From TrEMBL:
It holds the Pfam family Gal-3-0_sulfotr. Its main location: Golgi. The keyword Transferase applies. This is Galactose-3-O-sulfotransferase 4. InterPro entries: Gal-3-0_sulfotransfrase, P-loop_NTPase. It is found in: Golgi apparatus membrane.
Amino acid sequence: MSYEERLKELSLYSLSKRRLRGDLTEVFKIMKGISPEERDGDFKMSSSRTRGLHKGTFHTNIRMRKLGSWHSPRLCTPKTNVMFLKTHKTASCTILNLLYRFGEKHNLTFALPKGYHFDYPNFFNSRSVKGFWWQNGQHYNMMSSHMRFNRPEVQSVMPADTFYISILRHPVSLAESSFNYFHFLAPAFKHSPSFEDFIANPWKYYIPYLRFNHLARNMLWFDLGFDHNAEFSLQSAQSVVAEIQQTFHFILLADYFDQSMVLLRDALCWSLDDVVTFRHNARTNAKPKCLSPAQEEQLKKWNALDWYLYQSFNKTFWEKVERFGKRRMDKEVAILQARREELQNLCLLKEGKPPKVKQSLGQGVQRCQTGYVTMMKHTLNSNLSISDKELCSRMIREEYEYTDLMPPCQGCPQLGPYQ
């Protein structure tokens, strides 16, 4: 269904018309004293009888954003201090791309690892941040590379008003994806003849505390900084969830990615194009296995901590959707999807091609997947204008490419926006 057909189906005006309507509404509110914003400097009344006002310059708190055309003004300030806890196999590479794009566009600083992750799977320590020295009071705008979360150390690097986010995925689909992706890295997966064999008797292949075996059990719990081998206790699990809720402002769900992007955009006060993304690090050569209800239950029991975590934040997620408004959510998801389709048609060839696998990028960090899957690589259209090519190149740029392009000194001047 085309963009125009979707608008007609949802009884919506086009984006340009909705932006214009929002602009005119805000002008009316400012001139009539209805808006809480001060009008001084925004508009001046004209002495001429032919026109009622002269347009001045909008203050940033009214926030007229320009992305090719004006968006409707929103009475909020975009958040620029963001910490994203990047979990494994949860569409986090896709989110990382939009964070890098936003940071580059606004000349923000990133806390970067000395390699390609913050000494993972060890707990995060501020010493693993490239160029960081706590005694000079240095802070960064963005942090998003892989780590095992350690709140006090993260807070020593990030400003006090940082907005903390992370993302979860249903443990059943996460386990299936992890088995294929990390098959030769996690010993428990490596020694298992098949995923079905592992499900039937995981203790036959799993040795607690063996390096990288956290990828085979309660991986989300581990990344969030807790003991993934602990026996399930409702009281302890509730305590952990409460601690996470105190730290993180928003937990996204990979299973409801577009709804998550709508809520994230609203929470951060960002523009539509800031949260439009293409899929990154997605597999192309295999479909998820169809598991029986009994096998799914086995995986939930095996990953009991992750299952409780997911259920808890799935509940709070849909409570947020309810407060946001279901009808409003449906409309904004449709707009998001239409814009994504528009950019895909502009930027990409119809089918992504598997990448040429690089064995490593130095410093012992494996760049490629270590399992049975082949990951999709987007290919740009060849007839793009210079400006469109710059935009599209940023949208398909992978995590490691962005990390390599960042200035070595994040206290120094940044890459200019779209230079």
